[in-house]
Design brief:
The complex is a heterodimer. Chain A has eleven helices and 14 strands. By secondary structure, chain A is of the alpha/beta class. In chain A, strands 6-7-8-3-9-10 form a six-stranded mixed sheet, sandwiched between helices. A four-stranded antiparallel sheet of chain A has the order 2-1-4-5. A four-stranded antiparallel sheet of chain A has the order 12-13-11-14, with helices on both faces. In chain A, α4 crosses α5. Chain A is elongated and about 75 Å long. Chain B is mostly helical. Chain B is 74% helix and 0% strand. Classes of the chains: A alpha/beta, B mainly alpha.
Chain lengths: 319, 268
């Protein structure tokens, strides 16, 4: 029986009202258990509460209500005990630009109580692991986005934390570097038995996690393994574009007694036997249909069904 | 025990070192630090001191003698306070967030900035002090000792004061305008321009709660140890040193409390 890396219960956070903005509830009664050695993803739109959760887990802010324990230590009453157990990778850069790659890592080591020969060995191993040894003398301000992110990760791993928390770690990385980073995170989890918590707003990334939580408006709307969550939906998702989607939706519903929904001007229908159904719809309504597509349900579909919006819904993001 | 030391001293050590490394890597800061004492010395010497061309000759102008310690205090005041701009830079550049999630005591974060700022202001203060003989001062070993001690304590106190403001502000411009409101009155009412004994009673009250008053008085004593240079009404050197320390501890505690209060909201 593995123990819990993170135990959150009844977590609520409100940002106080400020001039020009009202009080905002960023987290609303979140409860969540993450066992040790899990690769856990927190997926949700911007403003859904991911960043607030990240800041609470990394001891940067104290929540309004609720309890958070990391490896049994209380984050709210004993933040200093938690700090040595966790490694944190921020979305925004946290390097000292005027220091070299190596100096950044050495500074990090000192901050975590390391020094001398063992620190140097540690820094060397970390730089080599991240393929940064040749770059160690370069100033952080001269590095590309991808390299900076690698230094950030090397920094966060330097004190061998038991839990690594990453906030949108692939921001600003191209697809190739994204894949590389995820491969590395999985390897890390497999080899070192580290627990990883990653926030993201990208479906593909969430699909790579063992379990995910869908976070929207401060609440967990779905929790489980990505494959399991997708099974909650029917076998296929059919999307239809039409000049008058409202009318077509009503007509399809009447004709086939099927539940359809409307999102972004598209009709969506979940169906066990998708291809047969598609043929029937086409047979009956082909004149009204601009395009019709069929696919396996994605996490985006799940989110859409739970909230009626897309994760990348522009109206909902304010970042 | 060893662990506790590691978590307190090592972070302070590296953060102070970082403060100095960053200073020496920014050429404009180094130039400013060397040039401003030189400019002050030159202007003071040529404008006020008749003995500028004959170093070693007794100082003629009474006002130069009066003005030099005040200039020394001004240098420490500005460098110490403005060194805490790095708090705002660290916050804006993101480095601060990685310090805040590290197992560093909050008091340690303050201590590292305070020590770093003090060392930087001391470098400049020493520079200007070294030029004092060229305008006619005769420095004694005891005088130098007292001046260094005074400048160090002033540095610690003023950096802690600057830290309290810098922590709660997020723009360098804002910090500049707020600190100018604090700095100039502090300097004007320190005894640098007119002696404490000449001030009207209501000003005397303000001067008495100004830590800089005691710093200027001490610097005056250290530069002219053979004269009874303590302005009438001001305490002895020992008491003055103690008062600066008390101010320093007070500002440090306020700074540590401000940092320790974990935010309900961070704007990182």
């Amino acid at each position: 029986m593995s123990s819990l890396a993170i135990n959150i219960s009844g977590l609520t956070h409100r940002y106080p009202a400020k001039k020009g903005s009202e009080e905002r509830k960023a987290l609303d009664g979140v409860s969540l258990q993450i066992p040790e050695r899990e690769l856990f993803g927190v997926l949700g739109p911007n403003g859904g509460g991911k960043s607030t959760l990240f800041k609470i887990l990394s001891t940067l802010i104290t929540p309004t209500e609720g309890s958070v324990k990391i490896f049994g230590e209380d984050v709210i009453s004993h933040p200093s005990r938690v700090r040595s157990l966790i490694g944190v990778v921020f979305q925004s850069p946290a390097l000292d630009k005027k220091l070299t790659v190596e100096e950044n890592l050495i500074a990090q080591g000192y901050l975590y109580g390391q020094s001398g020969h063992s620190l140097r060995e540690n820094v060397k191993a970390g730089l080599e692991r991240m393929g940064l040894w040749d770059r160690r003398k370069e100033f952080a301000e001269k590095l590309s986005g991808g390299l900076k992110r690698r230094v950030e990760i090397a920094k966060a791993l330097l004190h061998s934390p038991r839990l690594l928390i990453l906030d949108e770690p692939t921001t600003g990385l191209d697809p190739g570097m994204r894949r590389e980073l995820w491969d590395y995170l999985k390897e890390l989890q497999n080899k070192s038995g580290m627990t990883l918590v990653v926030t993201t707003h990208l479906m593909e990334e969430a699909d790579g996690c063992e379990r995910i939580a869908l976070l929207d408006k401060g609440k967990i709307v779905s929790l489980g393994a990505p494959q399991e969550l997708r099974k909650e939906l029917g076998g296929n998702v059919i999307s239809i574009k039409s000049a008058d989607p409202e009318r077509l939706k009503t007509e399809i519903e009447a004709a086939f007694k099927a539940g359809a929904s409307l999102a972004d001007g598209e009709i969506r229908i979940e169906k066990e036997m998708g291809p047969d159904f598609l043929a029937q719809v086409m047979g009956k309504f082909s004149s009204q249909i601009h395009s019709i597509t069929i696919g396996k349900p994605t996490l985006e579909d799940l989110f859409l069904r739970k909230t009626g919006r897309r994760i990348s819904d522009p109206e909902h993001s304010h970042a | 025990m060893r662990k506790a030391t590691n978590y307190t001293l090592l972070p302070i050590l590296i953060l102070v070192r970082r403060e100095l490394v960053r200073f020496f890597r920014q050429r404009s800061r180094v130039i400013g630090a060397i040039a401003s004492p030189l400019i002050f010395w030159f202007l003071l010497g040529s404008g006020l001191g008749k003995s500028f061309h004959a170093a070693g000759a007794p100082v003629d102008a009474g006002y130069l003698e009066y003005f030099y310690p005040g200039t020394l205090a001004l240098m420490i005041l500005f460098t110490a306070i403005f060194s805490t701009i790095s708090v705002i830079e660290d916050r804006n550049e993101g480095f601060l967030q990685s310090v805040l999630v590290a197992p560093v005591t909050r008091g340690g974060i303050v201590a590292s900035k305070v020590i770093g700022g003090t060392l930087l202001s001391l470098i400049q203060g020493l520079f200007l002090l070294a030029l004092a003989p060229l305008v006619g001062y005769h420095l004694t070993l005891a005088g130098i000792g007292l001046a260094v001690l005074t400048m160090s304590l002033m540095g610690l106190t003023l950096t802690a004061l600057g830290f309290v403001f810098a922590w709660s502000l997020n723009s360098v411009q804002g910090f500049h305008s707020i600190m100018n409101m604090v700095l100039f009155p502090m300097w004007l009412l320190s005894g640098a321009l007119f002696p404490y004994s000449e001030a009207p009673t209501w000003l005397k009250g303000l001067m008495a709660v100004n830590p800089l008053t005691y710093g200027v008085s001490l610097l005056r004593t250290s530069l002219s140890p053979d004269q009874a240079s303590i302005a009438p009404g001001l305490p002895s050197s020992e008491v003055s040193l103690l008062l600066i320390v008390v101010f320093g501890i007070l500002f440090y505690i306020v700074a540590a409390v401000v940092v320790g209060r974990r935010a309900k909201e961070v704007s990182i």
